[in-house]
Amino acid sequence: MVSVILVSHASLASGFLDASAMIVGPQSQFESISFDHDSNLDTLFDSMWTRAQALDDGDGVLILADLLGGSPANTAAKLVSEQVRLVTGMNLPMLLDVLVNRQTKSLSELARLAVESGAAGVIDIYTMLQEGDVS
């Protein structure tokens, strides 16, 4: 099973972890890491590396980060390899699809699904209603 690590500024990642547990239940091989005001990048990198190594059971680790170009994502990018993938722009639809599919999909398939689900979850409801697309 692909392991998942959430990384973010402040407590956003732990909030996503809590919200996903409310919807799909508690998950194994799943952790969050916060980059706080008093954190430094070396400590953040060490935490990500240590957790990625501890969680990986051979199927790989998918890191979901809050913001492309932010310190959490830039630090996580240093871990990217065949066994560690990084997807930015984390949102709840993305996370839920990742969690319910990580036992059956490969790391690459899961990274692709995260990008697709994340984008599909962004909708302007007013425009959708005006266009009559209520499917």
UniProtKB/TrEMBL annotation:
Tell me where on the tree of life, at the top rank, the source sits.
Bacteria
Q: Where would you say this protein principally sits, based on its record?
A: cytoplasm
What keywords appear on the UniProt entry? Cytoplasm, Kinase, Phosphotransferase system, Sugar transport, Transferase, Transport
Q: Which InterPro entries match?
A: Bacterial_PTS_sugar_comp, PTS_EIIA_man-typ, PTS_EIIA_man-typ_sf, PTS_IIA_man
- Could you tell me where this protein is found in the cell? Cytoplasm
Q: Where is the PTS EIIA type-4 domain?
A: 1-122
Q: Read off the Pfam families from this record.
A: EIIA-man
In terms of PANTHER family, this protein maps to:
PTS PERMEASE-RELATED-RELATED, PTS SYSTEM MANNOSE-SPECIFIC EIIAB COMPONENT-RELATED
Protein name (Swiss-Prot/TrEMBL): PTS EIIA type-4 domain-containing protein
Give the organism the record lists. Answer: Alicyclobacillus dauci
